[in-house]
Amino acid sequence: AAEGENYEWTDMYKRMAEEAREEGFEELAIKFEYVGKVEAAHEKRYLKLLDSLKNDKTFKGDAPLGWKCRNCGYVHEGPEAPEICPTCAHPKAYFERKVENY
Question: Measured between alpha carbons, how far is 9 from 40 in angstroms, rounded to an integer?
């Protein structure tokens, strides 16, 4: 996925912006450049996720964390997500780090 995002922001949208600009569509070229920036952010996120997975940090943390089940909303407090949600019995893969950024 990261490779695809890299291609999109380094080649595809860059080329599309250049072509739009050459054809006189400056506003469209600018939009393509902005979409390219979004794709670069996607690549960065995928690479961080891959690093987290490779280093066994996807469902573990260095400090006690909150882990929220995406199926039922149960919140587990601890350094890693539980193997099974005690409320709805969904597997560990349904847990995400609980973040309150509002």
Answer: 6
